């Protein structure tokens, strides 16, 4: 079966500084995977390589069998990958509503596309703040907006890089609840987060990376059964 996303033996560097050393991972349709590892191990660099922000020096990235590496980021997005980037990056001078519609599309003609109403149902707080500028939102509201904006592109795969970082516990819980609902809806996810407990509950499989290499991969149950993996590579 062709994976939805296939990252195969990818090497990536920032100029002369190589960061990824033969990273391979795959995501099936409707599957939730995580990339786990200490700070600076290459999680965000893996995301940047998938998204075409960084061109791998070797290896390949394919989406539903079509090669992505070398393609500009907007084409990667059009292939059906939505990104909720680290740091959120909402458009500060656009309103909530404008942020949501700015990049909206339904290129793959999904049967039940994301609309403003659906996003507002998921995050009622965004409806209340509809006319506020991005810059005036709280961190949690900006995070909801970043997720809503990515959903409005109707992706087949959504990548979330540190989506709960710096948020209050209640807001964090709301984000985890949202991700569970997206999973239940059949959306494939790649989640990068420091909170291992919720990752274990949400995800099907995990990739643990260390210094730009996958050092362990397996199911949530396998990770629960092997606590030394987290101890050794994440320090928990
Ligand atoms: N723009 C850049 N130029 C040069 N080196 C970079 C750049 N961005 C990241 N790096 C380096 O690449 C390595 C991997 O960084 P990356 O951001 O992928 O790590 P990470 O696992 O996502 O960690 P974090 O949790 O800190 O975000 C680090 O050594 C980092 O210093």
UniProtKB/TrEMBL annotation:
One of the record's GO molecular function terms: ATP hydrolysis activity
ABC transporter domain mapped to chain residues: 5-236
Superkingdom: Bacteria
Gene3D superfamilies recorded: P-loop containing nucleotide triphosphate hydrolases (3.40.50.300)
UniProt entry keywords in alphabetical sequence: Amino-acid transport, ATP-binding, Cell membrane, Membrane, Nucleotide-binding, Transport
GO annotation, biological process: L-amino acid transport
Protein's UniProt keywords contain Transport: yes
InterPro entries, alphabetized: AAA+_ATPase, ABC_transporter-like_ATP-bd, ABC_transporter-like_CS, BCAA_Transport_ATP-bd_LivF, P-loop_NTPase
Sequence similarity: Belongs to the ABC transporter superfamily.
Name of this chain's protein: Branched-chain amino acid transport system ATP-binding protein
Organism this protein belongs to: Glaciimonas immobilis
